[in-house]
Design goal:
Elements (H helix, E strand, L loop, with lengths): L3 E7 L3 H20 L3 E8 L3 E3 L4 H4 L12 E3 L12 E12 L4 E6 L5 E5 L2 E4 L3 E2 L11 H14 L5 E5 L3 H15 L15 E6 L10 H13 L2 E5 L3 E6 L5 E5 L4 E4 L1 E4 L4 E2 L32 E3 L10 H24 L22 E5 L2 E6 L2 E2 L2 H9 L6 H7 L13
Parallel strand pairs: 1-2, 1-8, 2-5, 8-18, 10-11, 10-16, 11-12
Antiparallel strand pairs: 3-4, 5-6, 6-7, 9-17, 13-14, 14-15, 19-20, 20-21
Helix pairs in contact: 1-6
C-alpha cells in the first residue's frame, strides 16, 4: 500500500457523522481497490453526540424526556468498522494552516495540542446557541448539566422567560407552557387555571421566520393555548442571576423583567473560530461553493463544508439530508480522480450539483399540537405532533451515530 492519506472531519454532529460514515462505507472501499491508503479522523469537542432536537422537551422534565437519552458516545458508532481505518479525536479545532494543510486540535484530556495534517478536510463544526442546554458548548457533560439544572427549576417556577422566536424558542416555550399550565379546553383560548406566567420575547415582528405569516399567527394562537404570552420587537440585552436563582433580564426597550427561569433560545453562532478570516463571511460562516459544497477556492484542494457552519445552509434536517449525497459524491469524485494519477487530478464529467430549497418547509411542535409546512403545503397540527412532537424523533439517534442514515450508496452520480 502507498502512504496513508488523512481524511479529516472536523465535527461530530449529524453533518460530520454523515460524511464520515459515507467515506467509510462508500468511498474508502473504492480507494482501497486502487491501492490507496486512507485513514479517517473525526474530531469533536464532545465525546458524545447530542440530539439537540429533543432539548425543548428535555429541559422541562426528566420524566418527559431524560437528558441521558439525548447523548450517545460518538466512538461507539464506528465499532462496526476496522479499528485501523479510523480514529476519533476528542478535542477542539484551534487553528487551521491552509498553506501547510494542517489543523491544530486542543485535546480535551488536557494533554495539550495535536497537529493533524490532512489530504482532504471536511468542515462540519456546526453552530451553537446561547445556552448549552440546546447545543454543545464544551463537552456533552456541560449540556447535560445545564438541562438537569432546568429540570430542577422549572417544575416549581411561577414565571419563565424564553427569548427567541425561532423553532427552538417556540418549541421550548410551548413545552414549558404545556408542562406548567396544561392546555386550554374546548372553546377556550387560554388555560383556565395557569400555574405560571410564561413569556416568549422575540426581536422580530413575527414568529418562525421560515414559515408564512398565517403559520406564524397559528403558532401564537397555540402558544396562547398553553398559557404563553408573546412579546414582539424586543430582545434580551443582558441577564443576571441572583443568589436565589432568579434571573433579571434587561431588554432592548429599557425595561427589566425578573423571572424564576430564563432560557435564552435566540440565534446561532458558527463554530468557526479556527478558520482564517478570509475564508469566512461577515457573520463567521465558512464561504462555500453553494453548488459543489467545496470550500472557497482559497481553502485549497479537497476542502469541503458540511452542515450549518457553511454559508450555503438554511439549517435543519431538510437541508442536511439534501446536501449529504451531493457532498459525498463530489468528495468521492475528487479522491478517485486524484488516485488515478492524472496530472490535473480533476474528475471527469460534471460535479453533482446541490440545489438548496427555498420552499416553506419546517415542523414546529407546540405543546400537544404544532405548526408546519412541506414545500409550502400546510401540515395539520396532529401530523406535526405525530412526526416530531410525539418524542422529538429520538429514534433517529442510533441511525445518525452508527451511519445507517447513509447506509444506501448515494454517491453514484449520473448526469
Amino acid at each position: 500500500m502507498s502512504e496513508t492519506h488523512n481524511f479529516v472531519v472536523l465535527g461530530g454532529s449529524g453533518a460530520g457523522l454523515g460524511v464520515a460514515h459515507s467515506f467509510l462505507k462508500h468511498i474508502k472501499p473504492e480507494l482501497d481497490k486502487l491501492g490507496k491508503a486512507y485513514h479517517l479522523y473525526v474530531v469533536d469537542r464532545s465525546s458524545h453526540f447530542f440530539w439537540s432536537t429533543g432539548s425543548p422537551r428535555s429541559v422541562v422534565s426528566a420524566t418527559l424526556l431524560p437528558a441521558d437519552e439525548l447523548f450517545t458516545p460518538i466512538a461507539d458508532g464506528f465499532k462496526s468498522y476496522d479499528s485501523e481505518s479510523y480514529t476519533f479525536v476528542h478535542g477542539t479545532a484551534e487553528s487551521w494552516d491552509v498553506e501547510g494543510r494542517v489543523v491544530t486540535i486542543r485535546l480535551s484530556d488536557g494533554r495539550g495540542v495535536q497537529t493533524l495534517p490532512y489530504y482532504a478536510l471536511v468542515l462540519a463544526t456546526g453552530v451553537r446557541t446561547p445556552s448549552p442546554a440546546t447545543s454543545i458548548h464544551d463537552d456533552y457533560a456541560t449540556s447535560k448539566a445545564s438541562i438537569e439544572d432546568l429540570n430542577r427549576k422549572i417544575p416549581s417556577a411561577t414565571s419563565v422567560i424564553v427569548a427567541g422566536g425561532g423553532p427552538t424558542g417556540v418549541e421550548t416555550a410551548g413545552e414549558v407552557g404545556h408542562f406548567l399550565n396544561g392546555s386550554a379546553g374546548w372553546f377556550r383560548s387560554r388555560p383556565s387555571n395557569p400555574k405560571a406566567k410564561v413569556t416568549l420575547v422575540t426581536k422580530g415582528d413575527k414568529l418562525l421566520p421560515v414559515l408564512s405569516e398565517a403559520r406564524a399567527i397559528e403558532a401564537e394562537t397555540l402558544l396562547n393555548r398553553v398559557g404563553v404570552d408573546v412579546v414582539y420587537g424586543v430582545s434580551v440585552v443582558s441577564s443576571v442571576t441572583d443568589a436565589d436563582g432568579k434571573t433579571t433580564v434587561s431588554l432592548s426597550n429599557g425595561e427589566e423583567w425578573t423571572a424564576d427561569v430564563y432560557i435564552p433560545a435566540w440565534g446561532t453562532t458558527p463554530n468557526s473560530e479556527y478558520a482564517p478570516a478570509h475564508l469566512k463571511n461577515d457573520q463567521g460562516y465558512i464561504k462555500t461553493n453553494g453548488t459543489t459544497l467545496r470550500a472557497d477556492a482559497a481553502a485549497g484542494p479537497r476542502v469541503y463544508v458540511a452542515g450549518d457552519v457553511g454559508d450555503y445552509s438554511r439549517g435543519g434536517f431538510h437541508s442536511l439530508y439534501t446536501a449529504l449525497p451531493v457532498l459525498a459524491t463530489n468528495i468521492k469524485r475528487d479522491l478517485l480522480a486524484a488516485a488515478s494519477g492524472r496530472p490535473d487530478a480533476k474528475p471527469e464529467g460534471p460535479d453533482r450539483p446541490f440545489t438548496g430549497s427555498t420552499a416553506e418547509t419546517q415542523a414546529v411542535p407546540i405543546g400537544p399540537s404544532g405548526v408546519g409546512a412541506v414545500n409550502g403545503w400546510r401540515l395539520p397540527g396532529f401530523l406535526v405532533w405525530l412526526a416530531k412532537g410525539r418524542n422529538y424523533m429520538i429514534g433517529n439517534i442510533p441511525m445518525t451515530v452508527n451511519g445507517d442514515m447513509v447506509r444506501r450508496d448515494n454517491t453514484v452520480w449520473k448526469q
